[in-house]
Amino acid sequence: MASTRKVVLFIVEGPSDEAALGGIFTKIFSNAAVKFDVIHGDVTTSCQDPAKIREHVRNEILKHLARDRGYGWKDLERIVVICDTDGAFVPSSCIEASSDGHLHYEEGRILARDPAAIAERNAKKSEALKRLSSIKELTSKQRKVPIRTFFLSRNLEHALSGEPGECSNDEKELLAHRFARKYVNDIEGFRRFLSEEIGVAGDYSETWNYVAEGAHSLERCSNLHLVLEG
Predict the structure, then answer these.
(1) Measuring CA to CA, which residue among 48, 29, 30 is closest to residue 230?
(2) Which residues, at least 6 apart from 6, have a Cβ–Cβ distance to it below 8 Å?
(3) I want to staple 115 with a disulfide (CB 3.0 to 4.6 A). Which of 11, 95, 188, 203 is the partner?
């Protein structure tokens, strides 16, 4: 059966994003049907050519809708993409060799087994993020749908839970459910958390300019509070 309410579609990287934010956003956008498309990966790095990020994201959404979700493109009110920054904008001088051969994100630097490979990944991811954040709408079958992209820095666990280290899937799930329990019945507290504790000051463009400077994409910050402003 087709959806009777307009759909706010969230594009996220993993199930932890949905677990942490799904119930909260369902309450906030109570006049719409909130749906999550869990990509199970990073839409910015899975796109082989950053110049084609618009087509890549649209195709991901169309594949999601083709799975008989009970709603289609015509039902979409808006699309919200939530991406981890993963330190994508840091200068290559901030990427160093790790002593244990593993990937570590720290305040101000990335430690990696292969710094050159991470620098290459960052160049691709940062370009895709810049392009994606500038897209205001996607079109399919001549119908335009507004889209906005928001960042969590350096990732979901760091931004929402203050966990700077790498987490196992079980740890991610635990942190996500803990965050959801804390705020699902405290929407005003959630708003304050986003804007006052991790929110980057400024309008949409200014927040993206901020996170693209220096090592800000390794800091604990986000512009997700702006999704609440419409």
Answers:
(1) 29
(2) 32, 33, 75, 76, 77
(3) 95
DSSP 3-state of 120: helix
What is the C-alpha to C-alpha distance for residues 47 and 124, in angstroms, rounded to an integer?
A: 9
The count of other CB atoms within 10 Å of the CB of residue 67 is 8
Main-chain phi, psi angles of 113, to 5 degrees: -65, -40
Amino acid identity, residue 222?
A: S
Does the pTM surpass 0.90? The reply is yes
**Residues contacting residue 176 through CB under 8 Å, at least 6 positions apart:** 16, 17, 19, 20, 156, 160
Distance from C-alpha of 119 to C-alpha of 40, rounded to nearest angstrom: 23
CB-based contact 17:39 (threshold 8 Å): no
Rounded CA separation 210/179 (Å):
26
For residue 194, how many other CB atoms are within 10 A of its CB? 21
